[in-house]
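Journal club prep — side note

Before the paper discussion, L.F. wants everyone to see what a predicted structure for a comparable chain looks like in token form. Sequence:
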Amino acid sequence: MVIMRKLILILVLANFLISCEGSDTYQGNWHALDGKNQKFEINFAPNKFTLKDQKGESKTYDYTQNSVKSENSIETYGIKLEDGRGYLIYFPKTDESVGLILDENGKLMYTISRKEYVTYDDIYKLN
């Protein structure tokens, strides 16, 4: 009985630790445009991401994934930065090679694409 309880506790803790890492869906390199159409490169790793601007200056942020929502094959991932700020990574189409990064209030921060820089209008024109 005691062994079974310990095993269950270990499994629950392992699941919690694994679920805090970022999803494979958004890990990797992205081309990003902010609201002023300034170009950035974003690289998501399991527990941190790097934001590089046009000048080549980079900042790295630690994060945890704190939510996943899937509705009609449309996915949204919530991340929380170490400083407490939260963001949503939203894929408005079933094609997860383009998406949006929104702040906690739903304001567009970046459009993202695996292949090229895309605007908000470009994302919603894609079929």
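L.F.'s comment for the group: The two ends are 55 Å apart (CA to CA). Keep this in mind when we get to the figures.
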